[in-house]
């Protein structure tokens, strides 16, 4: 294996830019004048990506803890929540909601299928007293992007509180919290945004912020309760400590750089870049006669999942790392051992990184006995961009 760092064409973490890597190699206390400025600016930029006039908290945790936290803040144990599940990440959120004894109505689709507005209508017709809904925007385990904007229309008609796991798409496709009526949206730093791992920006609507004020239910936790965070923002912002305890400041500094980068490029341009390069990558995969997990209509702009015969995914992943120094990833949950997943997000949603990946994918498959044409795959890619 080569000594230099592999190129990360993963569903996360994604390959950060040099600028982000440099920004992360810094130390700053989690309070005081300078931190206050960095924190305020980062929150402001994150609000622009979420398109919210509500609050943003920078939650210093991995994704699942942010999801678990969101779920216990969205509804109390008495209020019913519609959990929309169509893959491993939805399943895991469901486990968290069950662990916290939330009152669940389950809407489940198979891996590779999308949650549709019709599915939601039907579930809500059968359960009129539902108070909230949860959905994964981009199901990272299958590369299915659920039609969030359309789902939100139905949620809005039923006046539901809405929580979205946008972890693997935040910074890679449009999110409009205010317009679509999203009350809680969990983003992530080191996937489509290209920052460093360990921080989840969470957008919170004005409506949910107000509900928290009025809520009388006992908290399920101290640090994880948004009321604790709200109190810190209200009482400690003045001295630059708008969070309950210490923060991984270097990760936030890197997040600041990553957010600034997408805002400077222009959100529309960033989303278009993801959409164009993901479609071009899928065309290359199809030119190799491989089968995709997600139907084209719901294909993710940040990840592609490819079905392969049993035993091949591990060999392909190892071969691409050993011979081309490129990391791709395998399947999860029901698709473990059956697929590979390639991330093309943030800094890697670009011509050079994707064409290198197509070449490596094609030649490694050839070595594994597949009859693929790398030239045809590259042509399909270049013809599509
Ligand atoms: C959609 C989605 N939700 C949740 C998570 C969990 O994030 P973490 O592994 O940081 O806990 C991931 C991670 O890939 C994800 O893609």
Quick description:
This protein has helices at residues 18-24, 33-50, 63-74, 88-99, 117-126, 148-157, 177-180, 206-214, 226-236, 249-265, 267-287, 312-324, 351-367, 374-383; strands at residues 7-8, 55-59, 80-85, 103-108, 130-136, 138-139, 144-145, 161-165, 184-186, 200-204, 291-292, 303-307, 326-327, 329-330, 339-343. By secondary structure, it is an alpha/beta fold.
Characterize the structure shown.
By secondary structure, this protein is of the alpha/beta class. The chain has two domains: 7-13 and 267-383, Aspartate Aminotransferase, domain 1; 18-263, 3-Layer(aba) Sandwich (Aspartate Aminotransferase, domain 2), CATH 3.40.640. Helices cover 44% and strands 15% of the residues. It has helices at residues 18-24, 33-50, 63-74, 88-99, 117-126, 148-157, 177-180, 206-214, 226-236, 249-265, 267-287, 312-324, 351-367, 374-383; strands at 7-8, 55-59, 80-85, 103-108, 130-136, 138-139, 144-145, 161-165, 184-186, 200-204, 291-292, 303-307, 326-327, 329-330, 339-343. The strands form four sheets. It has a seven-stranded mixed sheet with strand order 2-10-9-8-5-3-4, with helices on both faces. It has a four-stranded antiparallel sheet with strand order 11-12-15-14. Helix 1 runs antiparallel to helix 10, helix 11 packs parallel to helix 13 (351-367) and helix 12 crosses helix 13 (351-367). The model has no long low-confidence stretch (mean pLDDT 97). The structure holds pyridoxal-5'-phosphate. Pyridoxal-5'-phosphate is lined by residues 12, 62-64, 67, 89, 136, 140, 165, 167-168.
């Amino acid at each position: 294996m080569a000594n230099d760092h592999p190129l990360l064409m993963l569903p996360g973490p994604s390959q950060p830019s040099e600028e982000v890597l440099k920004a992360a190699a810094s130390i700053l206390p989690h309070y005081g004048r300078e931190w206050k400025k960095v924190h305020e600016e980062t929150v402001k930029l994150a609000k622009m990506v979420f398109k919210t006039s509500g609050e943003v908290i920078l939650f210093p945790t991995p994704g699942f803890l942010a999801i678990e936290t969101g779920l216990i803040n969205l509804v109390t144990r008495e209020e019913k929540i519609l959990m929309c599940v169509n893959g491993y990440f939805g399943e895991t959120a469901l486990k968290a909601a069950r662990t916290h004894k939330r009152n669940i109505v389950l809407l489940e689709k198979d891996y590779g299928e999308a949650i549709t507005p019709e599915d939601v209508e039907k579930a809500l017709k059968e359960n009129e007293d539902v108070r909230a809904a949860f959905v994964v925007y981009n199901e990272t385990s299958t590369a299915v992007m659920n039609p969030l904007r359309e789902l939100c229309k139905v949620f809005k008609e039923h006046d539901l509180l809405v929580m979205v796991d946008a972890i693997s798409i935040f910074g890679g496709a449009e999110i409009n919290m205010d317009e679509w009526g999203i009350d809680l949206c969990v983003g992530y730093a080191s996937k489509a945004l290209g920052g460093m791992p360990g921080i989840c920006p969470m957008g919170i609507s004005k409506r949910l912020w107000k509900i928290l004020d009025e809520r009388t239910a006992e908290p399920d936790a101290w640090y994880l309760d948004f009321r604790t965070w709200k109190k810190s923002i209200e009482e400690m912002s003045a001295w630059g400590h708008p969070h309950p305890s210490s923060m991984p400041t270097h990760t936030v500094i890197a997040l600041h750089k990553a957010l600034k980068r997408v805002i400077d490029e222009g959100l529309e341009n960033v989303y278009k870049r993801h959409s164009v390069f993901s479609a071009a990558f899928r065309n290359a995969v199809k030119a190799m006669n491989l089968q995709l997990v997600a139907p084209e209509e719901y294909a993710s702009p940040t990840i592609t999942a490819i079905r392969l015969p049993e035993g091949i995914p591990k060999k392909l992943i190892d071969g691409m790392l050993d011979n081309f120094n490129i990391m791709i990833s395998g399947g999860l949950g029901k698709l473990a051992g059956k697929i590979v997943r390639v991330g093309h997000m943030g800094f890697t949603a670009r011509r050079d990184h994707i064409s290198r990946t197509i070449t490596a994918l094609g030649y490694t498959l050839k070595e594994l006995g597949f009859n693929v044409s790398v030239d045809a795959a590259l042509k399909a890619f270049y013809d599509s961009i």
